[in-house]
Amino acid sequence: MSVALVLAGGQSRRMGTDKLSLHLTKDASCVESNPVAQSSVVTILEHVSAVCKTIADEVWLLTSPDTERVVSKLAKNGQAVSHIVRKQGHTSPVTQQDLAHAAQQDLAHVTQQHAGRVRVVADDEFYAGPLRALAHAWSLLREQSATSEAMLTQADSYVFIVAGDLPGLTSEVLIACKSKLDQGTDDVDAVLVTRDGMLQPLLGCYRLRAGRVFVNALDEGEKRILPALRELCVETVSPEDCHWPEWWTRPVHTPGDYEDWLMARGSAK
Asked: How much is the pTM?
């Protein structure tokens, strides 16, 4: 089985607003051209979540402690979550309180029936960085692989790590990473995308065993993710070599990035 871990807990300081809530287009009619066919995707987070659902058995949204914010975002267009994983790994179904919070924000489409393969995994600290979020999530994955026959095993498990701020992400990117990992030798721990020659740890496919480096690095006081990768055998996929469009792998960090994205979509004012 496979799980996609989507980083969705950042502060968006450079954007000045929650960038994952930004619309893919300023023209609602352009939603029909979204690469995820037949979807109601309108925000960046919803798009990334929907893409991940096409290639992974489960999608985990790694968020800051205010889980209701993320539940509300997805609920707005019918992408409700099935479970919220709260502090200390306690898992609970989406509650009436969660649904009521969404309803207060005029999200009338929230129903229990929409619950699917998406979970919200909340960290216990705000804006503690991707290393902490990944270490927390990987600890939960390891617990589930040890206790659930339906969950992951060492031999056949894949973990996609995906930044939540990729408005042009397509499943082809993640499929390419997994395919290269499948074709590689057993000692390869991960296949990651590069951008401008730099490794992108938040866009790629990892083996389950790779998560130990995140857990160990956090335990040793490390706060950055790149130093942890030195302990892994990593291969790469180059967008240039694959002739991918720029926005398949380009994130949005600033208002200028977002305007560039809108221009590329032909929907800027």
From this structure: 0.79
